């Protein structure tokens, strides 16, 4: 996986804050976790590299809430406040379901939160990123890429979304795309050494894939050429390609 681990390979600590009074139902239990991407812990879950974090260490779960709006007699403001409450509540329920491993159910709650959060760009970005990690857990990497892209469109400096998209792209063996995201992480966070390690690891994989694709393309062209030339009793092997060292172009001669 691409996903960038913390500076300490086995450190994913979670501390629980005391539960709030029952009357304050709009303020959920929150957790704080050491992040692996160098950002704060306020925008969604974090996955852990299968290679570098053991299964029993789990995933980061946090529940950032959009601040509640001041009460107002204006109907528009009241509707906006109600929508914010609905979005936060749905996202909190999604977080709980995710923590219990119910990823499909969590996806539905995040979708509901997005329905409420039409006017809240940051919250929408977080929900898309949280949907992405659900898809990663479900092995649906194309969907994960799409959700990360939506999150990044809403928040172009969302490091966590770039991390998750890079992970999904690596799973799909889209190494070039994963490298692009890792390089963007370096651009946003120049001190991120883990992103640099990921780049060094993926570059040879990307080069090997490009070489393989090149060989496959040549083989297909050769097969096509032999199909056509075979009608005339010839084959591609009858032609010799010579590259001009000055221009890099090729000339062909029949043998």
Automatic annotation (TrEMBL):
Originating species: Arabis alpina
TPR repeat ranges, renumbered to this chain: 125-158, 159-192
Coiled-coil segments: 165-227
Superkingdom, taxonomy of origin: Eukaryota
Keyword Manganese: no
InterPro entries referenced in this protein's UniProt entry, alphabetically: TPR-like_helical_dom_sf (IPR011990), TPR_domain_protein (IPR052769), TPR_rpt (IPR019734)
UniProt protein name: Uncharacterized protein
Comp. bias (Polar residues): 23-33
Keywords associated with the record: Coiled coil, TPR repeat
Record field: compositional bias (Acidic residues): 1-12
Short name of one Pfam family: TPR_1
Keyword Coiled coil (UniProt): yes
Basic and acidic residues bias spans: 75-87
Region described as Disordered: spans on this chain: 1-87
